[in-house]
Amino acid sequence: MFSGIVEETAIVTRLEKEQENLHISLTCSFVNELDIDQSISHDGVCLTVVKKTEKDYTVTAIHETLLKTNLGQWKVGSKVNVERSVRADGRLDGHMVQGHVDMTAVCTKVSEAEGSWYYSFEYEPRTEEHITVEKGSVSINGVSLTVVNSREKSFDVAIIPYTYEVTNFHEIRPGTIVNIEFDIIGKYIARILKQMGKL
């Protein structure tokens, strides 16, 4: 499990296609602290470390992951938000993020607001569980954020300068495809209401 509090941006160093899989190598400041089989969130996608060197580490994205996320658009040099899993003895500063991306969304607008930024995103819901609520939580590229201006197929988020600089949000423009994971609690509630015939 993750918190949505990004540690830093890793840089893609190598991409290798093998049948339907994509092996992705990245470098970051904590490469020497990683272990094989360790789970790391990459732009919100939970991927397992399968190989490492002194300079970088490698994860593998399968076909299903490539279909539902923006990983297939990464290039050598791409900046990727990374977060190691939550420690049992640590604080949960963001919200409960599983690293199981629900779908992608497209950025439709970026507006400056005297020191912060508002980003608008649109998506096509596949189920009743793909919803946002005002002041609820959503994960965008692995970043835990609060929803503002929630609508049926779109929503906005506000980004403070720290998040803008530390994550890859400073590279998001209108037309950029991002990974989104809806709040797990909201998804369970929507599923229960549907089973009860109230949704």
Question: How does this structure look, described?
Answer:
This protein is mainly beta and 199 residues long. The protein has two domains: 8-84, Beta Barrel (Elongation Factor Tu (Ef-tu), domain 3), CATH 2.40.30.20; 103-195, Elongation Factor Tu (Ef-tu), domain 3 (Beta Barrel), CATH 2.40.30. The chain has helices spanning 63-68, 161-166, 184-195, and strands spanning 8-18, 21-27, 39-42, 45-52, 57-61, 79-84, 103-112, 117-122, 137-140, 143-148, 154-159, 177-182. It starts with 7 loop residues before the first strand and ends with a helix.
Features:
six-stranded antiparallel beta barrel; Elongation Factor Tu (Ef-tu), domain 3; mainly beta; 199 residues
> What fraction strand?
35-45%
Helical segment count:
3
Secondary structure tally: strands: 12
Mean pLDDT, all residues: 93
Number of structural domains: 2
CATH class of the largest domain: Mainly Beta
What does the secondary structure layout of this molecule look like, with pairings?
Elements: E1 8-18, E2 21-27, E3 39-42, E4 45-52, E5 57-61, H1 63-68, E6 79-84, E7 103-112, E8 117-122, E9 137-140, E10 143-148, E11 154-159, H2 161-166, E12 177-182, H3 184-195
Antiparallel strand pairs: 1-2, 1-6, 2-5, 3-4, 3-6, 4-5, 7-8, 7-12, 8-11, 9-10, 9-12, 10-11
Describe the structure concisely for a colleague.
By secondary structure, the chain is mainly beta. It has helices spanning 63-68, 161-166, 184-195; strands at 8-18, 21-27, 39-42, 45-52, 57-61, 79-84, 103-112, 117-122, 137-140, 143-148, 154-159, 177-182.
